[in-house]
Amino acid sequence: MPIFSDYDIEHSYYNSDALVRIQKLIAEHSKIEGRKRSFCVKCGYIDYKNPLPVAASVVPNEQGEILIVRCANHPMRGMWCLPCGFAEIDEEMNEAALRELEEETGLVAEQCTLLDVSNSHNYFYGNLLMVTYRVHATHGRLRPGDDAMETRYFTIDDMSPLVFFSHEKALNLYSSRDIETGEDQGEKEKKV
């Protein structure tokens, strides 16, 4: 299936009728989609560049510290992040968060609450849709799993910088909320 880009148009070996048709398709898709996209002039297939879905977990312990992992594999080897990983086909995002938590840390949880959804760019994987959950009540033995070289709890103030800005954002959201009610602390203070 031929996919065409601006390079193909500028260095075209197509006859003038085909070139006009290609230019019309580009103009139509620019108007409809609002972005430049590669596409097939024969079948109309549009090559969307969508973000990859990643599920992450904020896991507090009884002392209020947060669990983070040091990545064991490239491209993030040696860097710290929340327990996270790519969602599998046909897997719910919350299930992916709990699965990745167990794979990376050995901890098992059955309940989590949506905390944040944000777009994150990674030089290796491209755009990532980071869906972060607050995990409740874990059990199991904490140990580094398949993608982690180390797992540790830190206070938010003592934590090493995290590899993903979206993880930092989720931690800021988590720390600004009342743990019992989930209500934003700033909104709570306004009501008093």
**Quaternary structure annotation:** single chain
| Helix share, percent | 25-40%
Coarse shape: elongated
Q: How large is the radius of gyration?
A: 22 Å
The proportion of residues in beta strands is 25-35%
The neighbouring-strand order within the major sheet is: 6-3-8-7
The helix/strand order is HHEEEEEEHEEEHH
Parts with pLDDT < 50 across at least 5 consecutive residues: 188-192
What's the count of strands?
A: 9
Biggest beta sheet attributes: 4 strands, mixed
Give the overall pLDDT as a whole number.
Answer: 83
Overall SS class: alpha+beta
The first-to-last residue Cα distance is 63 Å
Number of helices: 5
Would you write up a description of this structure?
With 192 residues, the protein is α+β, with helices and mostly antiparallel strands. It is built from five helices and nine strands, in the order ααββββββαβββαα. The strands form three sheets. A four-stranded mixed beta sheet has the order 6-3-8-7, sandwiched between helices. A hairpin with an 8-residue loop joins strand 4 (66-71) and strand 5. The longest helix has 18 residues, at 16-33. The protein starts with 5 loop residues before the first helix and ends with a helix. The model is unreliable at 188-192 (pLDDT under 50).
